[in-house]
Amino acid sequence: MRVLVSGGAGYIGSHTVIRLADAGHDVVVVDDFSNAKPTVVGRLEALTGRPVTVHSFDLTDVDKTEHLFSHEPIDAVIHFAGFKAVGESVTKPLDYYQNNLDSTFSLLRAMGRHDVRTLVFSSSATVYGAEPSLPMTEDLPTSATNPYGWTKVMIEQILTDVAASDDRWRIAALRYFNPVGAHASGDIGEDPSGIPNNLMPFVAQVAVGRREKLSVFGDDYDTPDGTGVRDYIHVDDLAAGHVAALDRISHADDPMSIWNLGTGQGVSVLQVIQAFERASGRPIPYEIAPRRPGDIAASYADPTKANTELGWRATKTIDDMCADTWRWQSKNPNGYPDA
Ligand SMILES: NC(=O)c1ccc[n+]([C@@H]2O[C@H](COP(=O)([O-])OP(=O)(O)OC[C@H]3O[C@@H](n4cnc5c(N)ncnc54)[C@H](O)[C@@H]3O)[C@@H](O)[C@H]2O)c1
Hints:
By secondary structure, the chain is α/β, with parallel strands linked by helices. The protein has helices at 11-22, 39-48, 62-71, 86-91, 93-113, 147-165, 199-207, 235-251, 269-280, 304-310, 318-331, and strands at residues 2-6, 26-30, 53-55, 76-79, 118-124, 170-176, 178-180, 214-217, 229-230, 232-234, 256-261, 267-268, 286-289. 40% of the residues lie in helices and 16% in strands. It is globular and about 55 Å long.
């Protein structure tokens, strides 16, 4: 298939571009580089051994999106593009609603006009809201605790309605748990701008000496060691899940499908720190800080539905995730170069 990857220069999109190319698909990327560096493209070309077609524009631009579909043959879309920082979404809600919803509208309209009806969407475990029962199964009610999360809940609803309106659509929403890690080459990885919002890139920056110490937000949760528990999934396993979902919906009868992509294993903040110390051979100094508002004690998937229906399973351990993050961070202490 010829697959349009929106947000393909970003963290998860770039790893998925490699997996798609490995599976024999042709890839076209659209990204406005609002949260990615153009130098990722050369690395993708080196790793895939072929040129990567990139269109650089903002998908909320309806005319440019239409122009893309008029000039590129596309069979399917994987839609990663969007803003993703939870804290920023609280201070800039309109930016989040506008970017995440408008880019999706723009894509769906162009897809419908050009009879491209196969779509895989990046959703998130955040749609399980503030007090999910564990492990999380796809049939739990959805909710959110911040504007970013609401964009995911809303887009899932929009996609469900679009799929119900015309049974030629084949749409999958993939609910990611906590993506971490990097490509085994160490040449592509997560490169947050500014202070990292997520644990693993922060730990990696402490290990490499870019930051002095880590703050652990809360050690009095109802978890085995008191720190927050999450379901970390290697980004390469996640990327493979997209290829499996694309394959499945291309051959399935259901217009709309939802799958959790997680390992099913909960790992605490202190366990991540210990695993990273093993992987890097460096100490990770940390201090205990107050809980952050909105954080939940524990989050982990029941991945059974994806395991059985997609024939997909996360294979990498927390030690693999830390080893690959460390390889990326130590080869690229300041992330991607500007040019
Ligand atoms: N990383 C996570 O922890 C996580 C967890 C759950 C879900 N997700 C979702 O997965 C998707 C990808 O996440 P990521 O971590 O790779 O993020 P990322 O920021 O690295 O990638 C997103 C890419 O989209 C681009 N982009 C943003 N708005 C755009 C627009 N209007 N037009 C064109 N390009 C645009 C950015 O430049 C960036 O390259 C996002 O939708 C995110 O919400 C991420």
